[in-house]
Amino acid sequence: MTRAPGCRHARLVAFAALSALALASGCARLSDVGQVPGFNSAANGNEVFAMNSTAFPQARQVTARHQRASLWTSGRASLLGDRRASQRGDIMTVVIEIDDSASINNATERGRSGSEQMSLPDFLGIPQQIDRRLPDGASMANAVGTNSSSASQGSGSVRRNEELTLRIAATVTEVLENGALRIEGTQEVRVNFEIRELLVTGYVRPEDVSRQNEVTYDRIASARISYGGRGQISDVQQPRYGQQISDIILPF
Fold this sequence. Notes:
This protein is an alpha+beta fold.
């Protein structure tokens, strides 16, 4: 049986397309050899857009008569002014201090035993008639007898220790109708050939922002905190694409 020329042609086209895709991916990776990883541009981020759309609050102009009547002004630039972030475009500091530890130990044990026995020595002479036709040693005197037992035992333990201390400046990107502030912060630090990325998003109540214009991570609702990196070290730690695909599709 010979294969149709059209089928061979389609397979050649598919193989050529896969080869071209692999070659393009390899060339893209080869272009990064000897180069430090580049920063992501922040020019089009939500933080910059929020800061450009709303001007920073300016200190209120104080007249000479007001200066004579009071030692302090009520503007945000004064000594006693409220400098906490409260509107779109303001910046606050997010303090991330995670020091969690958990230890869980579970143990279960179960046992059960049962025994059942049924005999039928006399029932209108029927058992005796049956006994005559049964093989030697068989009798209806002890018709049914069962005995069962089961046992199970299980144990499990979980131990986790996490410690992370970070600080990042976040921008108020939106003020919701109930007054909650939606914040978003990004930070990139390059050390040699490795980029460390820190991302934080969530919702903050204005009352939870301290006088130092700081908010802790445990007071951020729907918090999304990501701390990772990209570069040579992160690339080596990741399995190759072929291995990732084979791990997904192989059933064993």
